[in-house]
Amino acid sequence: xxxxxxxxxxxxxxxxxxxxxxxxxxxxxxxxxxxxxxxxxxxxxxxxxxxxxxxxxxxxxxxxxxxxxxxxxxxxxxxxxxxxxxxxxxxxxxxxxxxxxxxxxxxxxxxxxxxxxxxxxxxxxxxxxxxxxxxxxxxxxxxxxxxxxxxxxxxxxxxxxxxxxxxxxxxxxxxxxxxxxxxxxxxxxxxxxxxxxxxxxxxxxxxxxxxxxxxxxxxxxxxxxxxxxxxxxxxxxxxxxxxxxxxxxxxx
Length: 252
Description:
- This protein starts with a helix and ends in a 5-residue tail after the last helix.
- The longest helix is centred in the C-terminal third of the chain and has 21 residues, at about 225-245.
- It has a six-stranded antiparallel sheet with strand order 5-4-3-8-7-6, with helices on both faces. A two-stranded antiparallel sheet has the order 1-2.
- By secondary structure, it is an alpha+beta fold.
- It is built from ten helices and eight strands.
- About 45% of the residues lie in helices and about 20% in strands.
- Strand 1 (about 60) and strand 2 (about 70) form a beta hairpin.
């Protein structure tokens, strides 16, 4: 619980509703009321009541097997968030106008615990059929270029805390080493970790506290990723990331 939570008295039903959405968001295949109740430590009757309300509001959908999944209303909030922040449109515009690779596959994502969530994506014809990025997609941060780019600007203690319950010490040490290398380089690289035959270059966008608020990335087929083109993408990507960070108030 954050310091702000201690200062503000939360409405219990609303807080529990958000908890339910968070839990189901981590299980895109769906969850039963019992599974939700077990994970949150709440009574099954409480979960049924809250989930019924969330279904009525289109925040959840109830499937034929009585499990719950995210509902369509959630995307309105995601779209509103994207619209509030002009990072996505600015990234696309700057990339297309300022590089020799207009129309490339580009993505914008945010970090949530050990995952990233794509909040904007544009797929190019070149990568069509290999892997389609889409808004709302969630992937492990440790295998994605944007995830590693954002985590490279976190301190080591926070990264270790983030993965303390989901990875062994050796894996965390290896990740820390990778993140330190990525920060020194100024960008991160996904070498077919997300999809075979696809590589991705990622860089962080920082806020006024020089903390990562988003990750931007460019993806391409590995067969097209010559050293020269890779250098070109990295130079353009890191330049755009700096420009966007400055617009967000970062001192870079």
